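Thread: "does anyone have the structure for this chain?"

Original post by V.I.:
We have the sequence but no experimental structure in hand. Need at least a predicted one for the grant figures.
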Amino acid sequence: MNELSPRRMRRMRTTAALRALRRETRLSPQDLVCPIFVAEDAVAGPVGSMPGVSRLRVSELEREIESILAAGVVSVLLFGVPTTKDASGTSAYNGDGIVCRGVERIKKLTDRLAVITDVCLCSYMDHGHCGVVREGVIRNDETIELLRKTAVAHAQAGADLVAPSAMMDRQVREIRGGLDAAGLTDVGILSYAVKYASSFYGPFREAAVSKPAFGDRRSYQMDPANAREATAEARLDVAEGADAIMVKPALPYLDVVRSVREAVPEVPLFAYQVSGEYSMIKAAAANGWLDERNAALEALTSIKRAGADAIITYFAKDVSRWLNGSCDFRVN
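Reply from O.Q.:
Generated one for you, tokens below.
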């Protein structure tokens, strides 16, 4: 009897077509969510630390939405950048606030996009923290009342999902109750259930004009050293009524993405490739140190492979165009 030839793993790697057949993890434009910074006129303009990203006026949204749809992306996440800030974050839950006007404009332009809104207070507070501050302490229960009001305002403007990101205890339960009481039972909640106190948020704080005036956010965002705590946070938010959950950041926390996916398999899992992850790739590519297309595709594929159903990324439009052109990586 002839001995069988040893298995050769390279046989399924020899051409792009064979690699595509063998590929275990696939990205598509529908997996990606494109963040949009919608801003008052006085603070609109390019974000220096995030090449290709701008704070957009409401009047500029039409061109952006056309570009997003043309790329094949079907979801956006709106962040507001107001000019009015105070100690109560009043403009966050004003029905005529910048996010509400942005949502209304997008909904008039198209019904083809899922519109998600970030529900937080940091950009609207004069101190830059995500909650109400009394005697130097971020007050949880006072904050969640304002988050509830903000979520209801966004939903009344037409948001499909509201995404609380302040990391206040019981914020999901309070928001779900507020939405239901307002007759907005069909509006879902995408909870930033697992949000770390990360150093990778720096460029975002420039974009959203939300740097804390004092201290840091470690008393409410998670310690980067903790993984078991992440699954507890995720389970709590699902129990409180979250329709989907998120891990943020993504790439430094792929182990957490995997563990959360396994802990709460019943709801969609989002992961956020945050501003620092985006800007690092952009900076390295600008210096000729790596190939931007390959690096972005590889990073996003790793996030999907770890278990994310959807990825929020500033690369959404570019990656979608790349995917529509070719599914293969170009490795030098």
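V.I.: this helps a lot. The chain has one domain: 25-325.
O.Q.: and The first strand starts at residue 32 and ends at 39.
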